[in-house]
């Protein structure tokens, strides 16, 4: 029982590792067999976690084992042997780089705990080990790094590749003769007891071979935003290449990993970090939290968790943490020019949500430098988007009240409906008479047939009066009907949803063609252009009720009509939401297929193992039905996947077209390509790859053959290549 | 010791509360079963002026929202400070319980709780005056919730008379 408890705790409370290893050490000193069984159990567990792709957990297990060397449970030479086996993975051929990366990472990350002991016993072997690692790190490919960096600039803090940073930290530790003072080592106090204990040898451990379906952890970049110059009073922040920095960050990440579901506990645990008096703990906590929030491709936990955790921390440390957070926000604002687009989006969402919990109090005047810049530059853009999001959580007048009058150019528009056929002044418009008739018909609860009849009379601007070729697409019909309907339903989201539902039949009829689908989206934008939140929810509803399809939405977002909105956050929120819906749709049908297949298997199993008496016509019929159902679902899956692939083709094709146009224009005009628009667009392309990398991996072949070919402009191709490098 | 181990997996923000809807058609067991698998949340302590847009914005942070039903005064048919939020997935609702419950919307700390599922009629306040029960009896002045509680506001004019 005790080792279930201990080993569980080892996995789940890694920041308290040394407490449990000491406990095991003391037990081993009393009872040699216990120690042996415990080690065996841990090795078994390690094998299991590796088999199940639980690499992050496996790191903690290996670290636990290595600390058991310090507690005289495991003999140092056998640990070195295990490390040698791990590092030998770097000699394997034809394996993904991320595989050998992991084994090197595990060894290096244990050294802060056990480096001293291992060097004392086996320095020659350890030196050899480290030089093997050094060789590997030198020849490692690092194309993936730019895609994972939060900032593209090297100053003030370089965004280092994680293995490079850890290597530098271990090098420094070695130079310091493995003197490490941060980790709490309770076993030192019990040295007299522990050194009498008999040690066990680790059984030879061969790393499991590479399996094609293995999912190794993705490479990452170390997030740093503070250094020793930032904490004005009190303890100094350990340097970026100090091993203390590594250990503190590891432990804080572990605490969040364990307690993220319970914000009060999480905040309390973070703030009671042992050794907090020797480090500027608030700065470390804020840095680690933002590091996770900005992690690429995505944060380890849902974004909103970090907002609530920071609020909780502010509650517990009202005298100190809010100031650190304000300082951090200021720094993040200053560095917006080189920040990755996805990270800027997350910052916008975090900051606006955070402010809404503190009456939107902020020293806006500190940011008045953004008022004299081109509004497309990152800083004014950021403030604009923050104010827009803040308005969504409150109301327009509130935003007017909270910013200084100098900021008026950045205040969002009042989110009101723009009705083309508002009043008599619009009477000259071709659709005006019909709009009045349709409006009255809807108010008087006319039937769909009656309304369609009215709409038939709407003149088609695309067609000649005497053109008798039948129904071609009539954009004015769509315009009149939808403008009028949405105008009547403008009161709230629910009213609009109800309207879409009630007139679903008519809307489906109007959007049968691709032109129709595109036009309906144009009209929605036209009427609600001051209320992007409403546009997003309406588009969502229309996809879910199949009035428009995902490809139509993508084409609309990239269309010329929307070019002036291209850099606004709501455009990308709609695009990513659309891609996610497509994804969920495919997954749903795949699941239905799996369930049907399982059902058939069970049925067949029952039949095979049953007597002849049980084999009646009914079960044969049922099987036949299931087989038919499976065939249909199979077709449905293929069709859905085809739709999904097409969606990505549309999106990437559009990106390539836009970017190529820009590059050609700049070249012919001898103008620098890196305009704010260009940086934004490239960032958005990267974002599509990163946010949906799992799905996109399935279609890599097609993408490479059709779109990302060698003929493509190297600037655009580079993004694709960086993406491919993530799973090397 | 198993208590301690369970503490490692604790997720208390997601637990069901003590509240049970007295109008629920079914027994306690049925209600609890529905609560434990529900995708719908009751949201309380809203300002009367909080709109569906605002509710949608904040609750979308924990998952895709399927629908929102704003609670109405049974007599006046105006918002009376509560609503239901239904998610497409249970996870969306759970994350709202973990991260949106107890934070602010329109400057007020809002409270979320599991709901067994919306049924027609449940969008109305159950207080005698038409609003929520809590607004019948409260003694404080809350400008975002119609001022004084209904009972308290009935007493008030009498007090003013007495001072003269």
UniProtKB/TrEMBL annotation, chain A:
Main location class: nucleus
Biological-process GO terms, alphabetical: 7-methylguanosine mRNA capping; mRNA export from nucleus; nuclear-transcribed mRNA catabolic process, nonsense-mediated decay; regulation of mRNA processing; regulatory ncRNA-mediated gene silencing; RNA splicing
GO molecular-function terms, A-Z: mRNA binding; RNA cap binding
Pfam families xrefs: MIF4G (PF02854), MIF4G_like (PF09088), MIF4G_like_2 (PF09090)
InterPro entries tied to this protein: ARM-type_fold (IPR016024), CBP80 (IPR027159), MIF4G-like_typ-1 (IPR015172), MIF4G-like_typ-2 (IPR015174), MIF4G-like_typ-3 (IPR003890)
Biased composition (Acidic residues): 610-628
Cellular localisation: Nucleus
Keywords recorded for this protein, A-Z: mRNA capping, mRNA processing, mRNA splicing, Nucleus, RNA-mediated gene silencing
Domain MIF4G: 1-174
Biased composition (Basic and acidic residues): 597-609
GO CC terms, sorted: nuclear cap binding complex; nucleus
Domain of life: Eukaryota
Disordered: annotated segments: 597-628
PANTHER family: CAP BINDING PROTEIN, NUCLEAR CAP-BINDING PROTEIN SUBUNIT 1
Similarity comment: Belongs to the NCBP1 family.
Protein's name according to its UniProt entry: Nuclear cap binding protein subunit 1
Taxonomic source organism: Sander lucioperca (Pike-perch)
TrEMBL record, chain B:
A molecular function (GO) term: RNA cap binding
Keyword field: mRNA processing, mRNA splicing, mRNA transport, Nonsense-mediated mRNA decay, Nucleus, RNA-binding, RNA-mediated gene silencing, Translation regulation, Transport
Protein location: Nucleus
Record-annotated RRM domain positions: 39-117
Domain of life: Eukaryota
Protein family: Belongs to the RRM NCBP2 family.
UniProt protein name: Nuclear cap-binding protein subunit 2
Gene that this polypeptide is encoded by: ncbp2
């Amino acid at each position: 029982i005790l080792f279930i408890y201990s080993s569980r705790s080892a996995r789940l409370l890694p920041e308290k590792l040394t407490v449990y290893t000491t406990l095991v050490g003391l037990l081993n000193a009393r009872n040699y067999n216990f120690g042996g069984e415990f080690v065996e159990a841990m090795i078994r567990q390690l094998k299991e976690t590796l088999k199940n792709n639980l690499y992050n957990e496996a790191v903690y297990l290996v670290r636990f084992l290595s600390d058991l060397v310090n507690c005289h449970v495991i003999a140092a030479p056998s640990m070195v042997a295990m490390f040698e086996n791990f590092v030998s993975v770097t000699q394997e051929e034809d394996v993904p780089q991320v595989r050998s990366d992991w084994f090197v990472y595990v060894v290096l990350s244990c050294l802060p705990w056990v480096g001293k002991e291992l060097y004392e016993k086996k320095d020659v072997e350890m030196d050899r080990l480290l030089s093997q690692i050094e060789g590997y790190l030198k020849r490692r490919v690092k194309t993936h790094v730019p895609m994972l960096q939060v900032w593209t600039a090297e100053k003030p803090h370089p965004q280092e590749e994680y293995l490079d940073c850890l290597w530098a930290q271990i090098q420094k530790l070695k130079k310091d003769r493995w003197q490490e003072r941060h980790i709490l080592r309770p076993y030192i106090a019990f040295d007299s007891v522990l050194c009498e204990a008999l040690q066990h040898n680790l059984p030879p451990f061969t790393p499991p071979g590479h399996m094609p379906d293995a999912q190794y952890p993705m490479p990452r970049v170390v997030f740093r935003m503070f250094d020793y110059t930032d904490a004005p009073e009190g303890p100094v922040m350990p340097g970026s290449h100090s091993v203390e920095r590594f250990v503190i960050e590891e432990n804080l990440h572990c605490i969040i990993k364990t307690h993220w579901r319970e914000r009060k506990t999480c905040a309390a645990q973070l703030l009671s970090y042992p050794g907090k008096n020797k480090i500027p703990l608030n700065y470390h906590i804020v840095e680690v939290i933002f590091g996770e929030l900005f992690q690429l491709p995505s944060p380890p936990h849902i974004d909103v968790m970090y907002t609530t955790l920071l609020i909780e921390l502010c509650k517990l440390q009202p005298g100190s943490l809010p100031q650190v957070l304000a300082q951090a926000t200021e720094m993040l604002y200053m560095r917006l020019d080189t920040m990755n687009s996805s990270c800027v989006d997350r910052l916008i969402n975090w900051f606006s949500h955070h402010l809404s919990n503190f009456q939107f109090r902020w020293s806006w005047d500190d940011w008045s430098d953004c008022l004299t810049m081109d509004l497309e530059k990152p800083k004014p853009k950021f403030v604009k988007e923050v104010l827009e999001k803040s308005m969504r959580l409150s109301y327009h007048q509130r935003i007017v009240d909270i910013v200084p009058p100098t900021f008026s150019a950045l205040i969002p528009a009042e989110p009101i409906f723009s009705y083309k056929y508002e009043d008599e002044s619009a009477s000259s418009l071709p659709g005006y008479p019909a709009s009045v008739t349709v409006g009255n018909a809807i108010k008087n609860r006319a039937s769909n047939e009656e309304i369609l009849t009215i709409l038939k009379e709407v003149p088609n601007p695309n067609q000649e009066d005497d053109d008798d070729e039948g129904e071609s697409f009539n954009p004015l019909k769509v315009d009149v009907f939808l403008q009028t309907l949405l105008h009547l339903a403008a009161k709230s989201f629910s009213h609009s949803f109800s309207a879409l539902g009630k007139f679903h039949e008519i809307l489906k009829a109007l959007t049968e063609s691709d032109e129709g689908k595109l036009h309906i989206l144009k009209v929605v934008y036209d009427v609600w252009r001051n209320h992007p939140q409403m546009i997003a929810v309406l588009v969502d509803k229309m996809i879910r009720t199949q009035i428009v399809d995902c490809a139509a939405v993508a084409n609309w977002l990239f269309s010329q009509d929307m070019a002036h909105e291209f850099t606004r956050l709501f455009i990308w929120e709609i695009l990513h939401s659309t891609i996610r819906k497509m994804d969920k749709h495919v997954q749903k049908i795949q699941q239905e297929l799996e369930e049907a297949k399982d059902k058939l298997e069970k049925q067949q199993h029952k039949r095979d193992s049953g007597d002849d008496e049980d084999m009646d016509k009914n079960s044969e019929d049922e099987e036949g039905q299931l087989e038919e159902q499976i065939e249909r679902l199979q077709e449905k899956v293929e069709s859905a996947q085809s739709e999904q692939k097409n969606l990505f083709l549309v999106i990437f094709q559009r990106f390539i077209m836009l970017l190529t146009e820009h590059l050609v224009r700049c070249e012919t005009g001898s103008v620098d390509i890196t305009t704010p628009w260009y940086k934004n667009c490239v960032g958005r392309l990267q974002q599509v790859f990163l946010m949906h990398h799992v799905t996109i991996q399935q279609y890599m072949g097609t993408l490479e053959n059709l779109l990302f070919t060698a003929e493509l402009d190297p600037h655009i191709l580079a993004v694709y290549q960086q993406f491919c490098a993530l799973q090397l | 010791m198993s208590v301690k181990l369970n503490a490692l997996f604790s997720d208390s923000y997601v637990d069901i509360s003590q509240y049970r809807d007295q109008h629920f058609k079914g027994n306690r067991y049925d209600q609890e079963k529905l609560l434990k698998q529900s995708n719908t949340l009751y949201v309380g302590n809203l300002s009367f002026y909080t709109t569906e847009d605002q509710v949608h914005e904040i609750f979308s942070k924990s998952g895709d929202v399927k629908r929102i039903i704003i609670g109405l005064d049974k007599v006046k048919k105006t918002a009376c400070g509560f609503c239901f939020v239904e998610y497409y997935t249970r996870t969306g609702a759970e994350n709202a319980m973990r991260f949106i419950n107890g934070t602010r919307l329109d400057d007020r700390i809002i409270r979320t709780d599991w709901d067994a599922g919306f049924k027609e009629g449940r969008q109305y306040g159950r207080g005698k005056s038409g609003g929520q029960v809590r607004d019948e009896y409260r003694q404080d002045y809350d400008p975002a919730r119609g001022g004084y509680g209904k009972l308290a506001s009935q007493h008030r004019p009498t007090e003013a008379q007495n001072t003269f």
